[in-house]
Amino acid sequence: MQANLTKTPASLLMMIALSAVLAGCASPRHRAPVEDRPVSGQARAVPTPAPAPAVAAPVAEPKPAPGAENEGKPGYYTVKPGDTLIRIALENGQNWRDISRWNAVDNPNRIEVGQVLRVMPPSMDAGAVSTRPVAAAKVESRPLDSRPAAAAASAPSAVPVPAAAPAPTAVAAAGGDDDLVWGWPAAGSVTTGFDEQKNKGLAFGGRSGDPVLAAADGRVVYAGSGLRGYGNLVIIKHNATYLTAYAHNQALLVKEDQAVRKGQKIAEMGSSDADQVKLHFEVRKQGKPIDPAKLLPSR
Question: Nearest to residue 118, comparing CAs of 135, 98, 143?
Answer without folding.
Answer: 98
